[in-house]
């Protein structure tokens, strides 16, 4: 189901069975590198692998699967890859969902969007830090400019009370991911570089908001791979809109707020 890993750069792309994740995995392959293509839904494995291998003229493909709505599967994937990989050159956290219209919780008890967009990538990234450190690698987190409208409500992070608003739920998840990216730059291993990025001029996860349901994502995918490359100068811990660094939300720049989120997350 997978090609043998070579001495080229190895890049893990999450959500390769989503539009942006697939386009990003394609770009990694086009550059001649090995992509570990993570999929959320095992039913998409064969189709995704065949589509990627059809274009793998130089790069190589390995397929892995973990349902981000089940943290046990995320942990299993993290432990497996950590044991197998001596080094990981880059991790591109592209897997993401829009908030559902109705209040929804996972089997783990967390609000669905918060778990898929933040808790799962946070846990996977932490598990892979030794491999990333060995490569002096990079972590690129796909966030959203809507993170600036988010709020971290520690009294109700899983949104069991109060009014449920999909945009607010989505913004919270992206705010948490952006805060994590910034913290990782400061507290992670030496040599690790992290950035968070809103990669397109429209909201990738919510095409219903505009007429972008089938908009091409080639430029967004190219940007993610570019930011993940070791030769690309970036602001470590920075937040980017497109290729330009810009100011993130106030909570992202607040070290005490980020420490509180990290403490809560690590307790899990």
Automatic annotation (TrEMBL):
Segments traversing the membrane: none
Source superkingdom: Bacteria
GO function term, MF aspect, one: oxidoreductase activity
Keywords: Oxidoreductase
Family assignment from sequence similarity: Belongs to the short-chain dehydrogenases/reductases (SDR) family.
Listed name of the protein: SDR family NAD(P)-dependent oxidoreductase
Organism per entry: Nocardia terrae
């Amino acid at each position: 189901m997978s090609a043998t890993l070579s001495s080229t750069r190895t890049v893990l792309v999450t959500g390769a069975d989503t539009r942006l994740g697939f386009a990003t995995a394609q770009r990694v392959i086009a550059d001649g590198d090995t992509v570990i293509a993570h999929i959320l839904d095992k039913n998409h494995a064969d189709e995704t692998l065949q589509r990627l291998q059809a274009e793998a003229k130089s790069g190589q493909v390995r397929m892995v699967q973990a349902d981000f709505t089940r943290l046990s599967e995320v942990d299993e994937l993290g432990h497996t890859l950590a044991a197998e990989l001596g080094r990981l050159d880059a991790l591109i956290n592209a897997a993401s969902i829009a908030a559902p219209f109705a209040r929804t919780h996972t089997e783990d008890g967390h609000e669905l969007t918060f778990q898929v967009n933040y808790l799962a990538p946070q846990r996977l990234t932490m598990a892979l830090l030794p491999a990333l450190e060995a490569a002096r690698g990079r972590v690129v987190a796909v966030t959203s400019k809507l993170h600036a409208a988010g709020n971290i409500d520690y009294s109700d992070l899983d949104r069991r009370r109060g009014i449920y608003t999909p945009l607010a739920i989505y913004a919270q998840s992206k705010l948490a991911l952006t805060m994590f990216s910034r913290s990782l730059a400061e507290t992670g291993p030496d040599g690790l570089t992290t950035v968070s990025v809103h990669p397109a001029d429209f909201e990738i996860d919510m095409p219903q908001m505009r007429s972008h349901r089938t908009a091409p994502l080639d430029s967004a995918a190219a940007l993610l791979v570019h930011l993940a490359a070791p030769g690309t100068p970036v602001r470590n811990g920075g937040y980017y809109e497109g290729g330009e660094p810009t100011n993130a939300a106030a909570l992202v720049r607040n070290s005490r707020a980020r420490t509180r989120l990290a403490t809560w997350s690590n307790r899990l």
